[in-house]
Amino acid sequence: MSEVVLVDVTDRVATITLNRPEARNALNAELRRALPQAVADCDTRDDVDVLILTGADPVFCAGLDLKELGQSSNEADDAAVVASTERRGPLPPTVKPLIGAINGAAITGGFELALNCDFLIASEHARFADTHTRVGIQPGWGLTVLLAEAVGVRRAKELSSTGNFLDAQTALTWGLVNHVVPHGELLAFCRTIAADIVSNDQDGVGHIIDTYDTGNLTTRDDWWSLEIRRSREWMQSRRALGAEVERRREAIMARGRKQVH
């Protein structure tokens, strides 16, 4: 039997693939155990700076394996599927950026899985749907928080109450995804974005991503204060790197000249 999660590390980028294509990458018990471990392992690897999460074609993830869930006789296990008391969401927190490469349908629990990534890049085949109300269960992996943050409360309410599908282009217009690319170019595009991240100061990347994540849980005023405090702490820790900062500034200017035509 094939592994339910595949991991490939190339050029400091870990690509993590849900690998149950025969079951539309549905989250059975084995996959729910293996995926968080794979993400945590990659996040701690010294040869990894960026993580990409995707699914084996033709879908990203169809959500919880409802066939398995329906056959379960353990109510405690069923409850743990919906809302873990050990962590928020289906994935552990990561220090390194986690890019969601949405190659196909991301439905209900699969939609929540996508929303737990730092940002999303979609194939033209990507579709999103929250069918919790159609199934008759309640989200417990952050959907009502993360979807509202991504598209606004009113649009989130529409998606959750109707169970309707959202196509890739509308997801782009609504701000759910950052880019939509041809299906065959999805992973290459994600790796290009990842390479841009790899080329930066990795301590700085982790620091600013954490500032976004922490600040987003506070008030606007507290977020300002958090950024100011962390900026001062960062600059104090880097005062000895003046020459290195100047070298990087010159490299940034050269890169900018290439990107702006």
Outline the structure in words.
The protein has 261 residues and is of the alpha/beta class. The chain has 2 domains: 5-198, 2-enoyl-CoA Hydratase, Chain A, domain 1 (Alpha-Beta Complex); 202-259. It is built from 12 helices and 9 strands. The strands form 2 sheets. Strands 1-2-3-4-6-9 form a 6-stranded mixed beta sheet, sandwiched between helices. It starts with a strand and ends with a helix.
Can you give keywords for this protein?
six-stranded mixed sheet, 9 strands, 261 residues, 2 domains, three-stranded mixed sheet, 50% helix, globular, alpha/beta, 2-enoyl-CoA Hydratase, Chain A, domain 1
What is the compact description of this entry?
With 261 residues, the protein is α/β, with parallel strands linked by helices. The chain has helices at residues 29-44, 66-71, 75-82, 109-115, 132-135, 143-151, 153-162, 168-174, 186-198, 202-215, 220-237, 242-259, and strands at 5-10, 13-18, 50-55, 98-102, 105-107, 119-123, 127-129, 166-167, 179-181.
Low-confidence stretches: 75-85
What is the name of the CATH topology of the largest domain? Answer: 2-enoyl-CoA Hydratase, Chain A, domain 1
Taking all Cα atoms into account, the compactness measure Rg is 19 Å
> So what's the overall shape?
globular
Instruction: Name the beta content range.
Output: 5-15%
